[in-house]
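hey can u run this one w/ pyridoxal-5'-phosphate bound, need the structure tokens asap thx
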Amino acid sequence: FIPEEFPKLGDIDNLMNLSYDELSSYILNLYFDELGEDILREASKKAYDDKFPEEVVPVKMADKAAFLELYHGKTLAFKDMALSILPHLLKASLKLKKDDRKVLILVATSGDTGKAALEGFKDIEDLSIAVYFPDGGVSEVQKLQMITQRGDNTYVAAIEGNFDDAQRGVKEIFTDENYKSELEKKSYILSSANSINIGRLIPQVVYYVYGYINLIKNGSIEKSDSINIAVPTGNFGNVLAAYYAKRMGLPVNKLIIASNDNRVLTDFFDTGKYDSDRELYLTSSPSMDILVSSNLERFLYHISDSNEEKIKDAMKKLNRDKLFEWDLFSDEEFAASASEEDISKSIKKVYEDFDYIIDPHTATAYHAYEKYLEKEKDDKFTLIASTASPFKFSNKVLESLDMEVPDDEFMSLELLSKKMKAEIPLSLRELKSMPIRHKDIIKPSEMRGFIDEIVGDEND
Ligand SMILES: *Cc1c(COP(=O)(O)O)cnc(C)c1O
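ok here u go:
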């Protein structure tokens, strides 16, 4: 799904005094108007309630840049922003279509998305969610986050295998028409919650507008000044949302696109060659360890003036040869990548310069921002998407700050807490004492059976 045309934000003056959830329903209504303003208002209220702090997206200043803290949701990373509202949008759509079947969301996760989706879908009526994670393939904290998950409609299974096994299993289920029609007889439909879902993309536009308004309010910029936006990228969803904000009329100068050692996108913007046929590195910013960036297709569609043939051709080549070439670029993007050492240096520098601690994902964006300043003497303000709490990646942060790294991740949290002069977030602190609710460890071949049990139990 892509918008046929970009709706306009209208005069920023009219948006200046909106709360986060009011701004959310305003922007969503520009795209999902068939749902209606009342429903979107209700969905936004439910999504951005006391799961978030009073200031849903705080902004931290750092000279001519500001960090847009997108990580104050339940799972301490920016995916909460969209996954908190997606279930409400899905439910509203089902109601609009008068579809009374139950929806089961299937997710294969390498760690973060699974937990964010579980929190978003928890206890939402008529929706259930099953998450598969690779046993041994996620961190101790990530595993605890998932197996202690509360909610009567949440199901979690560890897979004996790696992430690819889990992912393949889910894909096989999604493409098994016989199995799906069996489920339909029991009044169930399957759906996914991955980052190409338009119901995840559009809610991400909101915080860029909100951040811009915040900069006006605190006097950093004047109304209609243009800013740069720097985003750490994996599947290109978050940066695409910034591009959408721009197309809607938000004054954006450059999009600064940051990668880690998996620098497929940096190479693409530098050379015009998208080459996914390379080794995948496991880095300290694991949510960006991606070789095929699934939202890039949308971006290329928009910048090629909706040239469907060109996109089809490129995507066909990507599927067949793991590679395609592209010749249509504007000068509105700047891409750079950060090595592990660059990430550590950025964490340290931001701490020393601003007494402020950032996580490894955000550090890639800070590094790219500095690279950009080196290349172009630009005195415009830059908004940096801060995508995860440093507490989520405490070991790398401690190491970057030349501190001792304990074996026990919970000890790391204590050390970081002292350093940051901030409490460990409750959702991490409580993990150790929470009861384990999900104990299933299954083979990839048992993934359908796991669903059958869910459907059986829920129909009892
Ligand atoms: C998912 C994620 C990213 C990458 O976002 P995309 O929308 O996939 O580009 C960056 N940082 C963190 C912490 C994430 O969880």
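The radius of gyration is 22 Å. anyway lmk if its weird
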